[in-house]
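Why do we bother with holo predictions? Because pocket geometry can differ from the apo form. Keep that in mind while you read this record for 2'-deoxycytidine-5'-monophosphate.
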Amino acid sequence: MIHIAIDGPSGAGKSSLAKGLAARLGINYLDTGALYRTVGYAARERGIRPDDRKAVADMLGSVSVEAAFENGKQMMYLDGKPLGDAIRQHEISSYASAVSAIPEVRAFLLETQRDIARRESVVMDGRDIGTVVLPKADVKIFLTASAEVRAKRRFDELQQKGDKTPYAQILAETKQRDKQDSERTIAPLKQAADAVLLDTSDDTVKQSVDAILAIVRRKLG
Ligand code: DC
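The structure, written out:
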């Protein structure tokens, strides 16, 4: 089995690179952010404030969050119902970030992630994969890019979907999420000591994929 951990802030290109890498290796790709998004979605659906630790922790006793691979594509299920793209809504990003700082949420999702890794080879991306979830991963990569580049990528993506959120707002939110994700006391976003750092600020997707493949080849031989 092969386990590859890709961590980094939002917009660094983790998901497209992890997806491309998994396809090349013929293994599944698990987007762990989708798990946190599902918990954030559940909180919003129930009218629970995502920073209300007690209410969110209590909610966990009565929700089921599952990830399944269907034709190689990850599908999220909340209480047995498929969520589709609903978890991708802009508003869910801040819900996900807030609930992800709650220790009970992290403990709740840790086993889900490790279960998948026990069953199969996988490329996982997130914030704490190399540090907490898969500390023995075969390859660890920490992807980064400047906040401005990441906000611009997100802005372009939203524009294509017809979402008119201004760039300045996205940049401010990007910085706010970076702060929230890296300053939280539990499993903060940080590079594992044995991770390879890759800055994608000036790279095209193709260049980043090539760089990542070179790292994986070097590590796996
Ligand atoms: O990657 P993303 O933007 O979809 O992730 C949503 C939120 O979930 C993000 O703000 C941080 C959190 N997250 C986390 O804390 N740990 C992970 N392994 C993945 C995501």
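The chain has a mean pLDDT of 94.
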